[in-house]
Amino acid sequence: MVPMNLEILSEAERLDLGPFGFFQDVSPQAATFVTALGSRDYSRGDVEKLMEGATYVGRIYAACLLRAIDPAAGRAALLRLTGDNSPLIFRVPHSCGKMLTTVAKCADWFLAEPSAPIPSGRPKSEDLARWNEKLAQMAEKGNRSPEE
Hints:
Radius of gyration: 14 Å
Order of helices and strands: HEHHHHEEHH
Number of helices: 7
Shape: globular
Strand content: 5-15%
Number of strands: 3
Strand order of the largest sheet: 1-2-3
Number of domains: 1
Structural class: mainly alpha
């Protein structure tokens, strides 16, 4: 059973990593994700349970949480997701932008940017600004990673 505080991530239908929209609202799943990253109040077993029973979006959250406590295992989880072409909506943090993308593409982005989505589990404004800049570049390139 997934711990109650991570349960919302197991049912996620879109990827939210922070404040979104004109009023910069924070969805319950973004709040849960950022809080979990900041507190690290979960175990590897909790995340593995989340990975097993989650939606495809929930598996992205799980891989990122795992990377925060065990970088090698988190990287391996993200690599496994690079073959999943399930479509998803990614709401770009600190903006009003939405991107239709895939699980595989998100996994590729997170693998290419070790500090994403939250550097070391602790938000730093300069890192978030850099990440948001990369997201904007990706959107301009037609949903391709900046390295392509």
